[in-house]
Hints:
Blueprint: H1 2-19, H2 46-58, E1 69-70, E2 74-75, H3 77-89, H4 97-100, E3 105-106, E4 117-120, E5 128-134, E6 137-140, E7 149-152, E8 162-167
Helix pairs in contact: 1-2, 2-3
Amino acid sequence: MAGLATRRALVGLLGVSILSACSTLPSPGPGPSDPADPGPTGRLPEDLAREAAFMALGLVDTPYRYGGNTPAGGFDCSGLIVYVFRSAAGVALPRTVAQLARVGQPVRAASMRTGDLVLFDTTGRFSHAGIYVGDGRFVHAPSRGGVVRLDGVHTRYWRPRFSGVRRI
């Protein structure tokens, strides 16, 4: 148990360092890059979006569970997103990735900011999602037998599966 607490503390420190740079735009990603275009403004204030991202970072290493939507029971990808946004920002979101792909405002990849939803096509259109935390990274619940983790949007696996960004 002490190992888990230590890992979560380290992830929290990583989160603070990532979020401290959240005013900068990510490196050019899968879409066209126009640093002068900050993208649309979401209905969620930027400070609450950052709070959601920080909370997501604190849930790294929580076990994956299909249909899971609590830290005690584990998370699947959409359950993680719904839990984080409800807990950190008081925002009720739909439960499936396909439904999440229609909420908020679409954002160009080059304009992603902390707290945006990142969408992927892994087993079909809009079949996976995570929470962007800045610096080209996102928190997500990837698969059976895994845990909530931090990954790079631009990695060899995720980049070709990237399908969009939504700002809540």
